[in-house]
Amino acid sequence: MQQPHRQQPHPNNISARHLHSASRLRYDVLSGEWVLFVPKRFDPAKSYDFVTVPPQKVSATTCPFDDPQAAGNKAPHFWLPANQPLSQWRVQVLENKFPALEPLEAAGYSYVAGADDLPGYGYHDLLIMRDHKKTLGSYSEERVGEVFEAIQQRVHDVMRDTRIYYSALFQNQGPLAGASIAHSHLQMISLPVVPRHIRHELLHAASFYTKHHACFLCHEQTAHHAAARTLYRDAHAIVSASYTSREPFELMVIPRVHSASFETASPDVMHGVVRALHDALHTLEEHGMTDYNWYVHTAPFHGLRSTQQRSYHWYIRIVPRFTRIGVDAGFELGTGIQENPILPQDAIAALKAHKS
Ligand SMILES: [Zn+2]
Ligand SMILES: [Zn+2]
Prior knowledge:
The protein has 356 residues and is an alpha+beta fold. It has helices at residues 141-159, 196-212, 216-221, 267-286, 306-311, 329-335, 344-353, and strands spanning 24-27, 34-37, 78-80, 91-95, 123-129, 166-173, 185-191, 230-233, 237-240, 251-255, 292-297, 315-320, 338-340. It has a single domain (1-99, 119-356), classed as 2-Layer Sandwich (HIT family, subunit A), CATH 3.30.428. Helix content is 24%, strand content 19%. Residues 60, 63, 65-66, 132, 183 line the site of one zinc ion.
């Protein structure tokens, strides 16, 4: 497979015919926040709105992830393929060298209901892919599938610790996404608490369900305006730009069968999600959007009520990162209302127009 095409600066091939111009305020059901679309501020003739940076230059000889153990990292929890010696690893899962949270058994950690100051109990894992030069979008679909096999295995291991309520799974790809090491890797931070974004989404999804007798994300897929925002669809998963995309070219990978939890996804659903995620990342990379964050949003491990099972729908969100000039940062910080210069249907039209 071809390496992603990189240029700098990159205008992302947006042409004026894809753009609508009126401002819109849209309410995001899941987060409970408003998003302000200001497409008239986006000038496709200029490239400064969306500029990517050159890929990080880390020589393979100094890369700490080419041979993680030789670089002073701990032995892996496990590696794949499982039937091969460690020297043949393609994906390895290990504790972060400088973990944000640790399973401090000796401290006799136990969660006290209502506490607002806790020891940093938890797990901070890395999932490292073998190839120094490849990204998830440039790996084969089969290799991405292997990465997800490793993720599910690690989530199942961590879930056995009943003190853990939520595993935040994410990737920072490229310097604009906050990656400190160029070599492609994922992180998983497992917490003894449920983060705010998840608590809010659970709450808002449940109230949508009560009002409309439907899961919001199941319902969204059938909305009359969904087709124009859809990049990819097969029997198991779709890739679309949310009606309330907070960031330019933001994409969501949504399993089509309703389920609250990532870790219970069947192999068929997982294959579909892997295919969809791979297609989405590959498309973004082909458009020069080589810096991105993606993360999984899923239900907490414990304490889920039956309404939440029915109303919450797990998904992956991909957020390409750019140097954005002219963004109203103070407005966004002060109000929680994010400004996005490109409407989701325009973003999808632009990505589809040059899809290879
Ligand atoms: Zn490397
Ligand atoms: Zn659903």
